Amino acid sequence: MEAPQSKKRSFDFAETEGGGVVGPALCVTPDDASYVHTYYDACPWSPSERYLAVTRLPYDDRYPMLGDTAKVCVIDMRERTIQTVYKTRSWGYQTGANVNWGGTDRYLYTNDIVNGAAVCVRLDLERGQARVYSGPGYNIAPDDSCAIGFPLELMDATQLGYGVPSRDPLHPPKLSPGASDSQGLWRTDLASNKKTLLVSLAKLAAHMPDPAPWSGGTWYLWHSKFNNQATRILQISRTIFPNGQGGANTMVFTFNPDGSDIRLLPSKPQWGTDGGHPNWHPDGRHIIRNLSIDGKTRFCQWRSDGTEFQLLSGKLVGGGHPRIHTNRRHLVTDTFQDSGQQTYVAIRFIDLQTEREQQAFRMKTVGRRTLNDNLSMVRRLDGHPNWDRNFNRIIFQAAPQGKRQLFVANMGGLISAY
Question: What CA–CA distance (Å, rounded) separates 224 from 135?
């Protein structure tokens, strides 16, 4: 089918005071609405790095509602234009419209609600066409072979803001207690459109070495991530315990693209909140994450089979959404800073070798001052810093004028200074 596209519209990239050691950053989104990229683990730059893929939110002051549409937009970094290439009813504040590039600049992937289910949609930007698939597309294999994902309708069951709008935003659809053997990570072949259950929740639960501290928990999946080499999948699972006893998001698995060789990455305590935001190292062999070590959050690393644990720094405080450079030495992450009635997001630039850090940027953002307010938590705007494909620039989110915007900055000066 045809993909609804608008005409390209020119706009100015505005230099914005960065509030850190790098200097001004370039605001690469218009000021007519709020924009986000997908997440800190999905590169918004196209393979050629000429284009950025972003989501234009329909609003940002209330819960997303089923039927409301967001816009998938492409920004031409060379011509400084923006174009809407699709409108979707599948979006959230934290992950936008789950926009992923394929292996070339031709194909862009998002999701939409079709026949009541959120499914992957491939946009052919050269022909202006859209192909609807049978399964969800949280992440796309780097070689365009398949889409993987847990049903996006169920993502908000464990934390609002990561799935798709529902009829009752505060009570999204949920699974029955236990670990389902008919639900889990789905794989959709992008050539044949064949959808298969790659790994069930029950299969993952069987790899837990220790029993849950409470019986009757409900298993869900969260972020699903191919490594850059398309040789391994990282999968986060979450378990909600019954009777308001809380839940855990510490279960991190990796497995082969065919679902074999499931490995659980160690975590202590096995059930409990003791860190977060695991992600692939660019080398495709290691996992970077925050972990609580002796009561303090640290940046840590494992091989993807769960061996060779390494504390990346015994001095620096971990946290945020860490992304490590290909040189294995430098890392960027984000943090919230509250100042009276205003919340700021700071981008930390870290040298793991010297265990030294600098505040690269500091800008106003949409905060989460009231942690028990569900809407504040859903609307919060994390920095979500992400490297470009050549690891020279970063992109991050902030709202210095009240609207969510995306900022790009060249980090070469800081990197070469060491």
Answer: 14
Sign of dihedral through CA atoms 288, 270, 235, 320? negative
In this predicted model, what pLDDT tens digit does every residue of 187-211 receive, in sequence order?
999 999 999 999 999 999 998 876 6
pLDDT given for residue 209 in this prediction: 74
Q: Using CA atoms, how far apart are residues 147 and 131, in angstroms rounded to an integer?
A: 13
Contact between 138 and 182 under an 8 Å Cβ cutoff? The reply is: no
Phi, psi angle pair for 202, to nearest 5°: -65, -35
Distance, in Å, from the CA atom of 123 to the CA atom of 126, rounded to the nearest integer, reads 9
Cα–chain center distance at 37: 9
Which amino acid is located at 14 in the chain? A
Q: Are strands 310-311 and 296-303 parallel, antiparallel or unpaired?
A: antiparallel
Beta strand 356-364 pairing with 117-124: unpaired
pLDDT at position 274: 61
According to the model, what pLDDT value does residue 397 have?
98
Question: H or E segment at 413?
Answer: helix 412-416
Q: Express each pLDDT in 62-108 by its tens digit.
A: 999 999 999 999 999 999 999 999 999 999 999 999 999 999 999 99
Closest CA relative to residue 253, chosen from 275, 295, 224: 224
DSSP secondary structure letter of residue 265: P
The CA distance from 394 to 149, in Å, is: 26
Dihedral sign from CA coordinates of 253, 256, 259, 263: negative
Which DSSP state fits 3? P
What is the second-level CATH architecture of the domain 9-416? 7 Propeller (2.130)
Average pLDDT (251-257) is: 94
* Buried residues in 175-186 as b, exposed as e (16+ CB within 10 A): beeebbeebbbb
d(CA 290, CA 265): 13
